[in-house]
Design brief:
transmembrane; Sodium-independent anion transporter; transmembrane helix; 62% helix; 5-stranded mixed β-sheet; SLC26A/SulP_dom; 2 domains; two-stranded antiparallel ribbon; mainly alpha; Transcription Regulator spoIIAA; elongated; membrane
Length: 565
């Protein structure tokens, strides 16, 4: 019997051709350019205050947030594997970036960003993007909710205008007492601006969802601050405004010691960035019916991070909210994302002096909205009520994110999710027998012995169904080991087994060796090529066992039907 030739996989060129090239080959006219321009401008208006707010919360300057969106966003769209992905600084990175800046300084952050970019490029070219998407859903929901709590807690000081007697601690349990002790320093004007921003964004989203609520609320807060000459912290008072010139490339001071020191941060950036960007691409696919190229997307994210680090930016990833805005605004091709970067650059060149009036309280209000939206309330409710296992994974990831470390939370959550999956898979693997372990008395069959019948007390037939892997090997092995001394032949059918692993093969080998010592013949049936390859590799082959295509053929070999006279 000849095996059908397997279809060839996609070529390197097919896997790593940017979606921009694909879109341009389809034809690009004035209509598409207009749609992309409108979408790019819409996203830029959303990204302007958001990029500055995320950068400030991360311990960087507002200009660095804008540089990240301009440079990183351009390369994500230019080289990416998604038509609609918008790259830039993301709220999910705030905790990691802030920790890196505090521990290793700004040069350390830039080095870690560049190293992360190189790692993402390597992961993409090694075609590992498909596996990154296997992170369990409860883990992504849990760490996203945990990050949201940390983001909000980091903005309490700017939301209330508190004056702290000592530097603000990073860990939540240490931060809250310090903030509580500083409550008497609450500034009413700051609270007013923060609440006005939050309420303005929320109301505009409900009554005018197509209006740029983030920008309008922040611009309104800046206008009130300037007109009333409010004594509150602004971008100008804390950072001296933002530069009115394009970002200038420059390499950070690199030493081998610094590289080794920031490697853990680079790994964390890579892990979170790959998950976040591919999730964003999946969301865009769901909204448009298109399909992204995972590995091409990771390569683009890697190049974008290298470029962002060289131009003084922070970590770049695909951003779900801005990508969704891009789709809703009618984007047709990746040129929309490239134009979004161009519009942001124009804003810097033209309106940089106006940014000095933006109160930090309004940007904190923006991040408070971001944190609230990051918590997938419906997903949390569903996971908590649907399964105790999923609820445990969600809660563990959430708590570890808040009180321990994001990387640890993802690793532990993934491990728990994997154990839960193995447990569930093991429940789907079953074994049944056609012969009871204790033979019952029965009448003689009419016409004498029916030698080929599986009810022969000397022959026992087991059928295994489902994936036969290490999670199910112990339970199935215990059943197979219960071979009665009266049995002369053991038939194990694999017709309903899609695959088996090395643990399962060792289980079968151990069972066969035990049967051989008891002088019981073992026949394996229904094994296809891939199963036999694993079994043969573990010495499960003649003369230890014999193979037949079906149970019927095995029974015929066991009890040949006598020839008619």
């Amino acid at each position: 019997m000849t095996r059908a030739a397997s279809a060839p996989g996609p070529s390197f060129q097919e896997l790593f051709t940017p979606k921009l090239v694909t879109a341009l080959k389809e034809g690009y006219g004035l209509g598409r350019l207009k749609a992309d321009a409108v979408a790019g401008l819409t996203v830029a208006i959303v990204a302007l205050p958001l990029s500055m707010a995320i950068a400030i919360a991360s311990g960087a300057s507002p200009a660095q947030g804008l540089y990240t969106a301009i440079v990183g966003g351009f390369f994500v769209s230019l080289l990416g594997g998604s038509r609609f992905q918008i790259g830039g600084p993301a709220g999910a990175f705030i905790v990691l970036v802030a920790t890196t800046v505090q521990t290793h300084g700004m040069d350390g952050l830039l080095i870690a960003t560049i190293l992360s970019g190189l790692m993402l490029v390597a992961i993409g070219f090694l075609r590992l993007g498909t596996y990154i998407k296997f992170v369990p859903y409860p883990v992504t929901v849990g760490f996203t909710a945990g990050i949201a709590v940390i983001i909000f807690s980091s903005q309490i000081k700017d939301l209330l205008g508190l004056t702290l007697a000592s530097p603000e601690p990073g860990p939540l349990l240490e931060k809250l007492p310090v903030l509580w002790e500083s409550l008497p320093s609450l500034d009413p004007a700051t609270v007013f601006l923060a609440l006005a921003t939050i309420i303005g964004i929320s109301v505009l989203k409900r009554v005018r969802p197509h209006w740029p609520g983030l920008l309008l609320a922040v611009a309104g807060a800046a206008a009130v601050t300037a007109l009333l000459n409010l004594d509150v912290a602004t971008i100008g008072s804390r950072f001296g405004g933002i530069p009115s010139h394009p970002p200038i490339p420059a390499l950070p001071a690199v030493t081998m010691g610094k590289v080794i020191a920031v490697l853990p941060s680079a790994f964390a950036f890579t892990l979170l960035g790959s998950i976040e960007s591919l999730l964003s691409a999946v969301v865009a696919d769901g909204m448009t019916g298109r399909r992204h190229r995972s590995n091409c997307e990771l390569v683009a994210q890697g190049v974008a991070n290298v470029a962002s680090g060289i131009f003084g930016g922070v970590c770049v990833t695909g951003t779900i909210a801005r990508t969704a805005t891009n789709v809703r605004a009618g984007a047709a091709t990746p040129i929309a994302g490239m134009l979004h970067s161009g519009f942001l650059l124009t804003f810097i060149l033209v309106a940089a002096p106006l940014a000095s009036y933006i109160p930090l309280a309004s940007l904190a209000g923006v991040l408070a909205i971001v944190a609230w939206n990051m918590i997938e309330k419906e997903a949390v409710r569903t996971l908590v009520t649907a399964s105790r296992g999923d609820a445990a994974v969600l809660l563990t990831t959430f708590l570890l994110t808040i009180f321990r470390d994001l990387t640890e939370a993802i690793v532990v959550g993934f491990a728990l999710g994997s154990v839960l999956f193995i447990h569930r898979m093991s429940k789907t693997t079953a074994i049944e027998t056609d012969t009871p372990f204790v033979a019952e008395d029965e009448a003689d069959p009419v016409g004498g012995r029916s030698g080929a019948a599986p009810s022969d007390p000397e022959v026992v037939v087991f059928r295994i169904s489902g994936a036969f892997f290490f999670g199910a090997a112990a339970s199935i092995g215990s059943v197979l080991d219960r071979i009665a001394d009266t049995h002369r032949v053991l038939i194990v059918d694999f017709a309903a087994v899609p695959f088996l692993d090395s643990t399962a093969a060792e289980t079968i080998r151990g069972m066969a060796e035990k049967a051989e010592r008891r002088h019981v013949r073992v026949i394996l049936t229904g094994t296809h090529h891939s199963l036999r390859r694993v079994l043969f590799a573990h010495a499960v082959k003649p003369p230890l066992v014999s193979y037949e295509r079906t149970i019927s053929e095995a029974l015929e070999r066991t009890h040949p039907v006598p020839a008619e006279a």
